[in-house]
Amino acid sequence: MKEEKRNMANDTSPQEQGYFVQPENRVVEVSEDFLPQYINIDQLPISLVSEGVGLKGVFGHNLMLSFVYMKPHSVAALHSHPEEQIGLVLEGEYEFELNGVRKLIGKGDVYIVPPGVPHGARTHDKACLALDIFAPPRSGYREMLEATHKVMTFD
Protein backbone atom coordinates (compact mmCIF):
# COMPACT_ATOMS: atom_id res chain seq x y z
CA MET A 1 0.00 0.00 0.00
CA LYS A 2 2.89 2.38 0.66
CA GLU A 3 4.09 1.82 -2.92
CA GLU A 4 0.61 2.75 -4.17
CA LYS A 5 0.75 6.04 -2.25
CA ARG A 6 4.19 6.83 -3.67
CA ASN A 7 2.97 6.27 -7.24
CA MET A 8 -0.12 8.36 -6.63
CA ALA A 9 2.07 11.25 -5.45
CA ASN A 10 4.33 10.97 -8.52
CA ASP A 11 1.39 10.92 -10.94
CA THR A 12 -0.10 14.18 -9.67
CA SER A 13 0.41 17.78 -10.66
CA PRO A 14 3.01 19.85 -8.75
CA GLN A 15 0.19 21.58 -6.85
CA GLU A 16 -1.34 18.25 -5.83
CA GLN A 17 2.07 16.87 -4.82
CA GLY A 18 2.16 19.55 -2.13
CA TYR A 19 -0.56 17.59 -0.37
CA PHE A 20 1.94 14.80 0.31
CA VAL A 21 3.97 16.27 3.13
CA GLN A 22 7.63 15.33 3.40
CA PRO A 23 8.33 16.17 7.05
CA GLU A 24 11.59 18.05 7.45
CA ASN A 25 11.54 18.29 11.23
CA ARG A 26 9.82 16.83 14.28
CA VAL A 27 6.55 18.75 13.93
CA VAL A 28 3.94 18.61 11.18
CA GLU A 29 1.35 21.35 11.11
CA VAL A 30 -1.19 22.68 8.63
CA SER A 31 0.06 25.23 6.14
CA GLU A 32 -0.90 28.88 6.53
CA ASP A 33 -3.42 28.58 3.70
CA PHE A 34 -4.77 25.38 5.34
CA LEU A 35 -4.58 23.23 2.20
CA PRO A 36 -5.39 19.52 2.51
CA GLN A 37 -2.33 17.41 3.32
CA TYR A 38 -1.30 13.76 3.54
CA ILE A 39 1.55 12.49 5.66
CA ASN A 40 2.94 9.10 6.54
CA ILE A 41 3.44 9.00 10.29
CA ASP A 42 6.25 6.44 9.89
CA GLN A 43 8.39 9.19 8.30
CA LEU A 44 8.42 11.29 11.48
CA PRO A 45 11.05 10.61 14.15
CA ILE A 46 9.91 9.63 17.64
CA SER A 47 10.97 12.40 20.03
CA LEU A 48 12.16 10.94 23.33
CA VAL A 49 10.53 13.04 26.07
CA SER A 50 11.26 10.85 29.11
CA GLU A 51 12.83 7.45 29.76
CA GLY A 52 11.02 4.98 27.48
CA VAL A 53 8.38 7.50 26.33
CA GLY A 54 8.37 9.02 22.84
CA LEU A 55 5.97 11.25 20.92
CA LYS A 56 5.06 12.25 17.36
CA GLY A 57 2.79 15.27 16.91
CA VAL A 58 0.59 16.47 14.06
CA PHE A 59 -1.01 19.89 14.51
CA GLY A 60 -4.12 21.46 13.03
CA HIS A 61 -5.49 24.87 13.89
CA ASN A 62 -8.09 23.57 16.37
CA LEU A 63 -6.88 20.09 17.29
CA MET A 64 -3.78 17.93 17.36
CA LEU A 65 -2.79 14.28 17.21
CA SER A 66 -0.12 12.82 19.43
CA PHE A 67 1.23 9.33 18.81
CA VAL A 68 2.52 8.07 22.16
CA TYR A 69 5.15 5.32 22.17
CA MET A 70 5.88 3.66 25.51
CA LYS A 71 8.45 0.91 25.98
CA PRO A 72 7.90 -1.79 28.64
CA HIS A 73 8.30 -0.57 32.23
CA SER A 74 8.04 3.13 31.39
CA VAL A 75 5.95 5.91 32.93
CA ALA A 76 4.05 8.91 31.60
CA ALA A 77 3.86 10.95 34.80
CA LEU A 78 0.56 12.02 36.31
CA HIS A 79 -0.42 15.44 34.90
CA SER A 80 -3.38 17.55 33.82
CA HIS A 81 -3.99 20.23 31.20
CA PRO A 82 -6.82 22.58 30.16
CA GLU A 83 -7.35 20.87 26.78
CA GLU A 84 -9.80 18.02 26.13
CA GLN A 85 -8.17 14.68 25.35
CA ILE A 86 -9.48 11.49 23.82
CA GLY A 87 -7.10 8.55 23.42
CA LEU A 88 -7.13 5.19 21.67
CA VAL A 89 -4.75 2.32 22.36
CA LEU A 90 -3.49 1.09 18.97
CA GLU A 91 -1.08 -1.64 20.13
CA GLY A 92 -0.10 -3.26 23.41
CA GLU A 93 -1.42 -2.17 26.77
CA TYR A 94 -0.80 0.13 29.70
CA GLU A 95 -2.18 0.91 33.10
CA PHE A 96 -3.97 4.23 32.70
CA GLU A 97 -4.76 6.36 35.73
CA LEU A 98 -7.69 8.73 35.28
CA ASN A 99 -8.84 10.93 38.15
CA GLY A 100 -7.38 8.55 40.75
CA VAL A 101 -8.71 5.33 39.17
CA ARG A 102 -6.25 2.90 37.56
CA LYS A 103 -7.25 0.45 34.83
CA LEU A 104 -5.26 -1.84 32.55
CA ILE A 105 -6.33 -0.97 29.01
CA GLY A 106 -5.33 -2.45 25.66
CA LYS A 107 -5.82 -2.38 21.91
CA GLY A 108 -9.16 -0.83 20.99
CA ASP A 109 -9.78 0.79 24.37
CA VAL A 110 -10.67 4.50 24.37
CA TYR A 111 -10.23 6.95 27.24
CA ILE A 112 -11.78 10.40 27.59
CA VAL A 113 -9.98 13.00 29.69
CA PRO A 114 -11.94 16.18 30.46
CA PRO A 115 -9.98 19.43 30.94
CA GLY A 116 -8.10 19.64 34.25
CA VAL A 117 -8.47 15.95 35.20
CA PRO A 118 -5.25 14.27 36.45
CA HIS A 119 -4.11 11.30 34.37
CA GLY A 120 -1.00 9.28 33.51
CA ALA A 121 0.11 5.87 32.28
CA ARG A 122 2.52 3.07 33.13
CA THR A 123 3.50 0.09 31.00
CA HIS A 124 4.31 -3.27 32.52
CA ASP A 125 5.85 -6.13 30.48
CA LYS A 126 4.38 -4.97 27.14
CA ALA A 127 5.05 -1.85 25.09
CA CYS A 128 2.17 0.40 24.09
CA LEU A 129 1.30 2.69 21.18
CA ALA A 130 -1.60 5.08 21.68
CA LEU A 131 -3.11 7.93 19.71
CA ASP A 132 -4.14 10.98 21.74
CA ILE A 133 -6.32 13.72 20.24
CA PHE A 134 -6.38 17.15 21.86
CA ALA A 135 -8.71 20.09 21.28
CA PRO A 136 -7.52 22.74 21.15
CA PRO A 137 -3.86 21.79 20.55
CA ARG A 138 -1.95 21.50 23.84
CA SER A 139 -0.04 24.64 24.66
CA GLY A 140 3.71 24.12 24.82
CA TYR A 141 3.55 20.70 23.14
CA ARG A 142 4.85 21.85 19.76
CA GLU A 143 7.71 23.70 21.44
CA MET A 144 8.56 20.63 23.55
CA LEU A 145 8.82 18.43 20.44
CA GLU A 146 10.90 21.02 18.58
CA ALA A 147 13.29 21.34 21.53
CA THR A 148 13.76 17.58 21.93
CA HIS A 149 16.98 16.39 20.33
CA LYS A 150 16.86 12.73 21.35
CA VAL A 151 15.20 10.21 19.07
CA MET A 152 13.72 6.91 20.25
CA THR A 153 13.38 3.62 18.37
CA PHE A 154 10.27 1.51 18.87
CA ASP A 155 10.02 -2.13 17.78
Describe this structure in words.
The chain is mainly beta. The chain has helices at residues 2-10, 14-17, 141-147; strands spanning 27-29, 46-50, 53-59, 64-70, 75-79, 84-98, 101-106, 110-113, 119-122, 128-135, 151-152. Strands 1, 2, 3, 4, 5, 6, 7, 8, 9, 10 and 11 form an eleven-stranded mixed sheet that branches. The two termini are 21 Å apart.
Tags for this model:
eleven-stranded mixed beta sheet; mainly beta; 155 residues; disordered N terminus; 11 strands; Jelly Rolls; globular
Measure the end-to-end span: 21 Å
Q: What structural class do helix, strand and pairing data support?
A: mainly beta
CATH architecture descriptor name: Sandwich
Portion in beta strands: 35-45%
Mean pLDDT across the residues is 84
Largest sheet: 11 strands, mixed
In CATH terms, the superfamily is Jelly Rolls
Broad CATH class: Mainly Beta
Helix content: 10-25%
Supply Rg.
17 Å
Low-confidence stretches: 1-10, 12-20
Please tally the β strands and state the result: 11
Order of helices and strands: HHEEEEEEEEEEHE
> How many helices?
3
Organism: Sulfobacillus thermosulfidooxidans
Domain Cupin type-2: 67-134
Pfam family, one: Cupin_2
InterPro entries: Bacilysin_H2HPP_isomerase, Cupin_2, RmlC-like_jellyroll, RmlC_Cupin_sf
SSE topology:
Elements: H1 2-10, H2 14-17, E1 27-29, E2 46-50, E3 53-59, E4 64-70, E5 75-79, E6 84-98, E7 101-106, E8 110-113, E9 119-122, E10 128-135, H3 141-147, E11 151-152
Parallel strand pairs: 1-3
Antiparallel strand pairs: 2-3, 2-11, 3-4, 4-10, 5-9, 6-7, 6-8, 6-9, 6-10
